[in-house]
Write a structure and sequence with these properties.
The complex is a heterodimer of chains A (345) and B (801).
Chain A: H1 3-17, E1 54-65, E2 70-81, E3 94-103, E4 108-116, E5 122-125, E6 130-133, E7 136-142, E8 145-151, E9 156-163, E10 168-169, E11 175-177, E12 184-201, E13 204-219, E14 227-237, E15 242-250, E16 255-261, E17 267-270, E18 276-285, E19 288-298, E20 303-309, E21 315-316, E22 322-331, E23 335-341
Antiparallel strand pairs in A: 1-2, 1-13, 2-3, 3-4, 5-6, 6-7, 7-8, 8-9, 9-12, 10-12, 11-12, 12-13, 14-15, 14-23, 15-16, 16-17, 18-19, 19-20, 20-22, 21-22, 22-23
Chain B: H1 2-15, H2 17-54, E1 62-64, E2 70-71, H3 72-80, E3 85-95, E4 98-105, H4 114-117, H5 125-129, E5 135-137, H6 139-145, E6 154-156, E7 164-168, H7 169-176, E8 181-182, E9 184-187, H8 198-201, E10 206-208, H9 216-252, H10 254-262, H11 267-312, H12 324-350, H13 367-390, H14 394-426, H15 430-481, E11 486-489, H16 493-504, E12 509-520, E13 523-530, H17 534-539, E14 542-545, H18 549-554, E15 559-562, H19 563-569, E16 576-580, E17 583-591, E18 599-604, H20 605-611, E19 619-623, H21 626-640, E20 647-649, H22 650-664, H23 666-703, H24 708-749, H25 760-786, H26 790-799
Parallel strand pairs in B: 4-7, 5-6, 13-18, 15-17
Antiparallel strand pairs in B: 1-9, 1-10, 2-8, 3-4, 3-9, 5-7, 11-19, 11-20, 12-13, 12-19, 14-17, 15-18, 16-17
Helix pairs in contact in B: 1-11, 2-9, 2-11, 2-12, 2-23, 9-12, 9-15, 9-23, 11-12, 13-14, 14-15, 14-24, 15-22, 15-23, 15-24, 15-25, 23-25, 23-26, 24-25
The chains are: A mainly beta (345), B alpha+beta (801).
């Protein structure tokens, strides 16, 4: 038994679902399962749902510095339950993991935190909203106004986020079906944050402004075994429209899906097979080939864009390693976004 | 040519197989004892290193609380201020008469733990992290723990050091009954930017650098140094044998070498070949010694492990493994030792004039030589005394011991020469005069062996006196400390209260034994709380105290500390110590506390309870008239359904303590006997060496009318007389050695000074042993002399060889 391997095994399903992909054919083993009749209520559902196996608060921000350069920031808090209950003290079955990333055109920084539930080292409170692990936190008087901070040995950031649009519920009222077998998650986003803040880099502090996208999701069903990884895009176009799109790479063929978000926040699900993604360029990152430039098409919306990594080396060197970094968008629509890729061995 | 020389050299060993054997045995003994000690040391150190590596966190700084307990809230506060720390909760678990250390870590944030990674057990995270959790222990320990109620399931794994129970901190809290507590925090290697300063987040905590911690390796350093010193002494004694044998072999081969040179063999080639021959013999003897050392280490290691575990709580495993470094160093020592021991002989060979005769007394010393030896000896002793006068510490202590022993050894031959000269002057009768004079003539040849004997005897007296003094003091101290007739341990605090109430009417007094582990000066300190009872003031052994010491202690106005703490921190009565920010106390006395490596203190029970929460209330000393003790113990067991080990009578505790004590010095005793054996062997070698030179000296005496039998008896007498004189001279040296061990080495190594007791009976026994060794060593040459054909005696006159 290897402690690291354990944690990995533990968090793999969390990671696999982090972007909203449910796997196929798994059971919930006593955990609550998403219910299509359930209506999300706020602020309560901003908080943790300990009876579900997995849950996350996932923020990516595309930023521009006062120095005119592009930056990207990631802040993620994962919750993974070993059992569907909460308990005081060390033997709480709720485990927490934090990931923070900061990408500049030349460098990429990442950091990781682990914590046990039940002792106050990590947790989430719905209102006034507060999510934290160690000194990293994302908190504010409500979900629309948040301060977000994290630090690693070589970097730190402190960002103020203010929502200028509504929450976006994915799928049917936030009940997001993930497969033909019926697996689903509760899933909503806040993709409309305006951001100001300061990045601390080895070269000094940089003031930044930009946009952030927050994903909230909880479920109890991990990925299926034949799926080797995924490519996930969150794109903000200059038109004010946004698009979330992903491809799940599996032995039984790829699965693509997404959500089209209008400038006013109204959302429309994109069913399987409509989005076409195609790698354009691979780069060697951390000893493996990773596709860092993509062509992405959604014909029904007239989208045909090239997505290009700001920094090929945006490798998250965490216990479960993956690629996550900011991208530039060109083509039929121009804009910025974030790309996440897992499973490239 | 080379082949012919080699054949000639080898023919010597063929004709003298005993000599060859002696040389090889001497080398093997020297290498063996030295390697055994090295193997033991290496194994113990490897165990510490393995244990530390297995537990992760090696080389990390730690945060400690002066009170010894860090609240869980402080850990969370540190984490939330950016401090990347990982909590460890440690404590003892008593079970079946053994004390295990429970080490609870946060499996999620602790540095990689090979101990669990290598356990090979298939444990789901929810089992190890959730309730009740899992304990990881060595198979033997796991078996011992099996069946104990209230413990989480135990996973057996070889990867955990002996005596340790590794588990998640959540399970450790429950097992130790210390919820919400942390013993120490490991400061992880990667710390984020913008971390708040420690004094803002947790001003009570202190950051301790890894080198500032009293780790096992440092604690046990002195013990290993002791063993090394012993090993080196054995090595030196073994080299005396090698020196004697090589000298003899070259003496005996003088004629052959002269012949070889006369036949045209260059001296350089001969010298090189002799050196090569020695090298080969050194390797063979060294290899044999390594085998012997490995065997010996295997025999001694279990006892050494028990000692180290008992004295220091050091995790030493019982098994021995062959290490390449150890083999290489053992062989190197054998070769270097052989060359050093034969350098003089080789030098003489290289300078030997072509026509020098055989059998001349090549290594005799003149009075000027004696004076030089005496001078060198005095310089060495002076150097040793100077070292201890000018410097403190264990190394100075060993320099003193080394100077003393080597100087003493160098002084021996001049001293013996002096004694012999005085004796010869007073001798009456021709035979007596001849015997004395002959002894003086023999002295140079046998002096090295006698020096070996002196060293062995002195070491024996010194170490023996130390151990016996220690034991005597320890027994007396046990008598003082273990005053209560019955000792009882309740299962938990509730039962403790019930037991105390039950005893109230049945015993003369019930003395609670309650203690808490706190940290003082970066090391654990066990503070005991006592109630007012004459048992303490009448019996407790105090080394130093202020007036009215016991009244002040029970009034909560002062604290007693043990000798170890007093010496380590340089605290004298009258000084104040700070046990916690709000807990300062004046030290009113110092007590002896043998066998305990950690600091200890005694204060009034209510003072202890005021400053430390959750002090267990489970152990009691019970005063009853001794004739009622057994009945009371039985009643107690029956009334509370206590296991036999939970209720112990005084005699049982004493026997147990003494057994542990005796085990501690098994190794010392074994090395002592071996050293003496080696010295006896050295005498035998020397006498055999002298044998060839004896004939021309004895033959004239025989011709003058002394029978061979009488000569043989005189031979024995001479050997015994020299051994006896050496033994007498060894006594003062041994006593000084004992003093140094008790007053210098012990204080440095263990933290306590012991009063010195003298054991004349032991000296007599040792004296007898020395005489017997000399008799046995001389028996072979004497027997040979007694049976020597007269023709051979006559031959001395016939051809002068």
């Amino acid at each position: 038994m290897n402690v690291r391997a354990w944690i990995l095994a533990l968090l793999l399903p969390v990671m696999a679902q982090a972007q909203g992909f449910a796997g196929l054919g798994t059971t919930a083993e006593g955990f609550a399962v998403p219910d299509p009749a359930y209506r999300l209520t706020f602020p309560a559902d901003h908080g943790a749902h300990p009876t579900y196996r997995i849950e996350w608060w996932y923020v990516t921000a595309t930023l521009e510095g006062a120095d005119g350069r592009d930056y990207g920031v990631q802040w993620t808090l994962f919750r993974s339950a070993l059992a569907p209950e909460e308990r005081e003290g060390w033997q709480s079955p709720q485990l927490w993991m934090g990931h923070a990333g900061l990408t500049t055109p030349e460098r990429h920084f990442s950091a990781e935190r682990m914590a046990r539930g039940g002792i106050g080292q990590a947790g989430v409170i719905a209102a006034p909203f507060s999510a934290w692990i160690d000194e990293w936190r994302m908190a504010g008087p409500d979900f629309d106004r948040l301060e977000m901070r994290a630090a690693g040995p070589e970097f730190a950031y402190r960002l103020e986020m203010e929502a200028r649009g509504p929450l976006v519920l994915h799928g049917a009222q936030g009940y997001s079906v993930k497969s033909a077998d019926g697996q689903a998650s509760h899933y909503y986003s806040q993709p409309f944050y305006d951001v100001t803040g300061v990045l601390t880099l080895p070269g000094g502090d940089v003031a930044v402004t930009g946009e952030a996208w927050l994903d909230r999701e909880w479920s109890s069903q991990p990925l299926s075994e034949d799926q080797s990884g995924w490519d996930w895009f969150s794109l903000s176009f200059d038109t004010g429209e946004k698009m979330m799109a992903f491809r799940l790479r599996g032995g039984r063929g790829d699965f693509t899906s997404g959500t089209w978000i209008a400038a006013d926040g109204s959302a429309e699900p994109i069913p399987d097979g409509r989005i076409v993604v195609e790698p354009l360029r691979e780069a060697e990152v951390a000893g493996r080939e990773v596709p860092v430039d993509w062509r992405l098409r959604l014909p029904e919306r007239g989208v045909d864009v090239e997505v290009e990594a700001l920094n090929d080396e945006a490798w998250m060197d965490t216990n479960f390693a993956y690629w996550e970094g900011p991208v530039r968008v060109r083509g039929s629509h121009a804009g910025k976004g974030y790309l996440e890729m897992t499973g490239y061995e | 040519m080379r082949r012919a020389i080699l054949a000639a050299l080898w023919s010597h060993w063929r004709r003298h197989p005993v000599q060859l054997l002696t040389l090889l045995v001497g080398l093997a003994l020297a290498t063996g004892l030295w390697s055994a000690v090295q193997a033991i040391n290496a194994e113990a150190r490897a165990s510490y290193a393995r244990a530390e590596a297995q537990m992760g966190g090696a080389g990390l700084a730690e945060l400690h609380a002066p009170s010894g307990v860090i609240p869980l809230a402080t850990y969370v506060a540190l984490r939330r201020a950016g401090w990347q720390v990982s909590p460890v909760l440690e404590g003892p678990l008593r079970h079946g008469g053994r004390v295990f250390t429970v080490m609870g870590v946060d499996l999620l944030t602790h540095p990689p733990l090979p101990a669990i990674a290598e356990s090979g057990a298939d444990i789901a995270p929810v089992e190890a992290l959730g309730a009740p959790g899992r304990l990881f222990a060595r198979p033997g320990d796991a078996a011992a723990l099996a069946g104990r109620d209230g413990l989480p399931p135990v996973v057996a794994t070889e990867a955990v050091p002996p005596g340790l129970i590794l588990t998640d901190i959540g399970a450790a809290e429950a097992v130790l009954g210390r919820p919400g507590e942390v013993s120490r925090l490991l400061v992880l290697p990667e710390q984020p930017l913008g971390r708040a300063p420690l004094n803002e987040v947790a001003p009570d905590l202190v950051e301790v650098a890894p080198e500032g911690r009293a780790d096992t390796a440092r604690l046990t350093d002195s013990f290993h140094l002791n063993l090394t010193a012993f090993g080196f002494l054995s090595f030196a004694v073994g080299l005396f044998i090698v020196h004697g044998t090589v000298g003899l072999a070259l003496e005996q081969r003088r004629g052959m070498i002269r012949t070889l040179r006369a036949l045209g063999a260059p001296l350089g080639t001969i010298t090189r070949l002799v050196a090569a021959e020695l090298l080969a013999l050194a390797l063979i003897g060294g290899l044999a010694g390594l085998a012997l050392g490995f065997l010996l280490a295997g025999l001694l290691l279990p006892d050494v492990s028990a000692t180290l575990r008992g004295l220091y709580g050091a995790p030493v495993e019982g098994g021995l493994s062959l290490r390449p470094g150890w083999v290489a160093s053992g062989l190197a020592m054998a070769v270097a030792g052989t060359l050093a021991a034969s350098a003089a002989s080789l030098g003489r060979l290289a300078r030997m004039p072509l026509l020098a005769g055989a059998g001349s007394r090549a290594w005799s010393l003149r009075p000027r030589g004696w004076r030089m030896m005496a001078g060198a000896g005095l310089v060495l002793i002076g150097g040793g005394v100077g070292a201890i006068a000018l410097f403190d510490g264990l190394v100075a202590g060993f320099v003193f011991l080394g100077g003393l022993l080597m100087g003493g050894a160098l002084l021996l031959p001049p001293a013996l020469a002096l004694v012999l000269r005085l004796a010869a002057g007073r001798a009456r009768g021709l035979v007596a005069q001849w015997v004395w004079a002959d002894m003086r003539a023999q002295l140079p040849g046998i002096s090295l062996a006698l020096m070996a004997l002196l060293l062995a005897l002195a070491a024996n007296i010194g170490v023996g006196t130390m151990v016996s003094s220690f034991r005597l003091t320890f027994v007396g101290w046990l008598d003082q400390r273990l005053v209560s007739e019955v000792y009882v341990t309740a299962r938990d605090d509730a039962q403790g209260v019930a037991v105390a109430a039950w005893l109230e009417t049945r015993a003369d007094a019930v003395l609670p034994i309650r203690s808490a582990e706190i940290r003082y000066a970066g090391a654990p300190l066990f503070v005991y709380g006592i109630v007012d009872h004459p048992t303490y003031s009448e019996n407790w052994p105090l080394l130093d105290a202020l007036p009215g010491v016991w009244d002040r202690v029970v009034a909560g106005d002062g604290i007693l500390i043990n000798e170890q703490l007093a010496r380590r921190e340089g605290i004298t009565p009258g000084e104040e110590i700070v046990l916690a920010p709000d807990w300062r106390m004046e030290v009113v006395g110092v007590y002896s506390d043998y066998g305990n490596p950690t600091g200890q203190a005694i204060t009034a029970l209510d003072v202890l309870l005021r400053h430390v929460d959750g002090v267990p209330n489970q152990r009691f000393g019970v005063r009853v008239p001794p004739d009622r003790a057994t009945a009371l113990a039985q009643d107690l067991r029956a009334a509370f359904d206590l296991p036999p080990r939970a209720v112990v009578q005084q005699a049982g505790v004493k026997a147990q303590s003494l057994a542990i004590f005796d085990k501690t010095f098994v190794v010392t005793g074994a090395l002592n006997v071996l050293t003496l054996g080696v010295a006896g062997f050295a005498i035998l070698t020397s006498l055999l060496t002298l044998w060839t030179q004896r004939l021309p000296q004895i033959a004239p005496v025989w011709a003058l009318g002394l029978t061979r039998a009488r000569l043989a008896r005189l031979e024995l007498l001479r050997s015994v007389a020299l051994a006896a004189m050496t033994a007498v001279l060894a006594l003062p040296l041994g006593l000084v050695l004992a003093w140094a061990l008790l007053a210098v080495i012990n204080v440095e190594a263990f933290g306590w000074r012991l009063p010195m007791h003298l054991f004349p009976l032991d000296w007599l026994r040792l004296f007898a042993l020395a005489i017997i060794a000399a008799l046995i060593a001389a028996a072979l040459p004497a027997r040979r002399l007694g049976r020597l054909p007269p023709a051979q005696m006559l031959g001395v006159f016939a051809n002068e060889r």
